[in-house]
Design goal:
2 strands; mainly alpha; globular
Length: 301
């Protein structure tokens, strides 16, 4: 129903559809992967019955896929030599979701039909510009040529990153919310991780460095896609920066007030706050290699 509120054009459909993975993740984190799969297939069938068969595909990508990944990875655990249970670290779950976001960019690019280059843009970027232009013509036909050009200059360069990044943030928000709700209801299989101790896998740094280098020197589709992959891969590092902020505030008086002020400043700074916070996360990621081996393997202790 959350997804169909968007498909049927309800006013609050965009906001409600953003929460579509939440019930699936709650079912899965409570009952396991099989239950999440059954719930996802049932939801896909319901969406297909109400909105048409093809509607179940975007629902599967938007809600079912991230739910299955989160449930499958988050419920992994093992016992150490002392008999203590070690749960799969949240940083590695985040790594899996980020890898899926990157895969969505690449799969989407592979599905773009081949087109001759137009002007300075060709391939995927030209197709994106054409699609956005046609959409603006339908939704905002009164725009002047200058306004249309400004909109294209804003949307086209990182449009794949906007889509994949929105998908990744949606998956993260719903996963954290599902775990929080289940803990309050006493239905969670695993304890809630200490998010301020977040550690990212090393390979995320390698992907970020490679994508940044390719985006800086490559032209055409390779450079275009590499820049979008760079933007998406920076999201986990922004979360790592937020974790560093929480860790800094945790041991200080009036921690909640400090965090409220910091988040207020970030909110006022809008999207520009993403850059310094991700930079803080990169600093924390790099300094882990100079810390003791107690926290240097990317796993929660």
């Amino acid at each position: 129903m959350l997804f169909l509120s968007l498909a049927k054009g309800f006013a609050a459909g965009m906001l409600l559809s953003y929460l579509a993975p939440l019930p699936l993740m709650m079912v899965g984190l409570h009952r396991g992967l099989a239950a999440a799969l059954v719930a996802g297939l049932a939801a896909m069938a319901a969406v297909a019955a109400v909105a048409g068969g093809l509607s179940s595909l975007p629902f599967a990508i938007m809600a079912v896929l991230p739910s299955l990944v989160v449930v499958r990875q988050a419920l992994l655990c093992r016992s150490d030599s002392a008999g203590n249970v070690e749960w799969y670290p949240p940083g590695l779950v985040l790594g899996w979701l980020t890898a899926l976001g990157v895969a969505l960019i690449l799969v989407g690019a592979a599905l773009v039909p081949e087109q001759p280059a137009g002007g300075e843009m060709g391939g995927v970027q030209a197709w994106v510009a054409d699609m956005i232009g046609k959409t603006m013509s339908l939704l905002a036909p009164t725009l002047t040529d200058e306004q249309r050009k400004m909109a294209l200059d804003w949307w086209v360069p990182f449009f794949p990153a906007m889509l994949a990044g929105s998908w990744l943030v949606m998956a993260i928000v719903n996963a954290v919310s599902a775990q929080g709700f289940l803990v309050r209801l006493g239905r969670s299989q695993r304890p809630t991780p200490v998010y301020r101790k977040l550690e990212l896998p090393v390979w995320l740094g390698v992907v970020l460095a490679a994508a940044f280098a390719a985006g800086a020197v490559a032209e055409g589709d390779l450079g275009y896609l590499a820049r979008s992959i760079t933007a998406v891969t920076l999201i986990p590092f922004a979360l790592l920066g937020l974790a560093a902020m929480h860790g800094w505030a945790a041991n200080r008086p009036s921690a909640r007030i400090l965090l409220a002020v910091m988040y207020g400043v970030l909110f006022l700074a809008s999207a520009w706050a993403f850059v310094p916070v991700a930079g803080l996360g990169l600093v924390r990621f790099m300094t882990r290699f100079r810390r003791s081996a107690d926290g240097g393997d990317g796993k929660e202790k």
